[in-house]
Amino acid sequence: MALPGAVNRYLLLMAQEHLEFRLPEIKSLLSLFGGQFTSSQETYGKSPFWILSIPSEDIARNLMKRTVCAKSIFELWGHGKSPEELYSSLKNYPVDKMVPFLHSDSTYKIKIHTFNKTLTQEEKVKRIDALEFLPFEGKVNLKKPQHIFSILEDYGLDPNCIPENPHNIYFGRWIADGQRELIESYSVKKRHFIGNTSMDAGLSFIMANHGKVKENDIVFDPFVGTGGLLIASAHFGAYVYGTDIDYNTVHGLGKASRKNQKWRGPDENIRANLRQYGLEKYYLDVLVSDASKPSWRKGTYFDAVITDPPYGIRESTRRTGSQKEIPKGIEKCPESHVPVSLSYHLSDMFFDLLNFAAETLVLGGRLVYWLPVYTPEYTEEMVPWHPCLKLISNCEQKLSSHTSRRLITMEKVKEFENRDQYSHLLSDHFLPYQGHNSFREKYFSGVTKRIAKEEKSNQE
Predict the structure, then answer these.
(1) CA distance 60 to 9
(2) Which residue numbers delimit the Ribosomal RNA large subunit methyltransferase K/L-like methyltransferase domain (predicted)?
(3) What share of the chain has pLDDT > 70, as a percent?
């Protein structure tokens, strides 16, 4: 039985991309597997080395079966800012924790990992030889060792100013690698059916992890497009469902998005995408439907709502309308026809989305969505608010010098009541975000200014 406070320390080696998304992903996954994010470090900034306290090795392994932001995890045996500090730390590590991995019947190897510096083979051997004081009794096996140990050295983040000596040195037992290979194996470039705005594979898996998607969950995407977000959730064993207002996209009809291909083929559809990855059994269905008028009976159906709403840049923001809503001066359509060309303001879209999630998510279920913002005007008060939903994380991805999108993760903490439907109108957050209804105009205004500036500099 572990002594109070004797929780093992682990070293996470993080990938150096999507830096803002890393901490929320790790926190969400630890929460999913029964752990809690605890660390002696107050902030990680851009460092790839994180020291965490995790209750058990099983939780550490489960974490690595899901994360795409972390490369590897190690049981931390020693840490110091110099070789001497490292050796002293290793000598203080309990021998009884080392022995199971160092006995005479075992095989092992020691690897060197450096960040922001390359060592010669001679330097690597020197570092390994310096660890001879450790009680290794097994045999070295470089091809198939039972246990792998690593020395990890951190030379900072500035490639133009590499120090002679590392800032930090770590030694630990390798536990598991993360799921970085998913980014390549699920790459949109290899996907059967894609659209103009198909989500990058890495971000799709990050969104599923932020949403704490797990086996046998039901995950819904109200702006499903070509189904990229469904694929990531299905990979983790969730049953997936979606809707979209665009008939051609849902049915895989019309012009293709691929270069040198004019029209979509008869087998280009969302179901075929899931079939491509052996995930068809998790596919419930997709419907042509308007997100502003959800066709659901009242009730809680979904464990997660994960979506990327249109911003009006490459895909238009639209909703269905009625004869009464058609602006004056426009010829009325036949009674049997419902126009699909009425504008759908971004603020209305996001508050509809929050209301929908508050009404249909199970308690503890998560809403994960992208919020486009015009950077010069953005403040945190602009993030839409709902009384049933608690903000978990808010991460930025730059789109241009003046625009970005923010990945918003919210968790349902209160059952939905009818009075909650219009509570956003009383919120201080409502009016600020209405300014982003002109996001499209501001986006293209910036593009136009940039092109004019480039043309001017070229002429000079």
Answers:
(1) 10
(2) 190-320
(3) 77
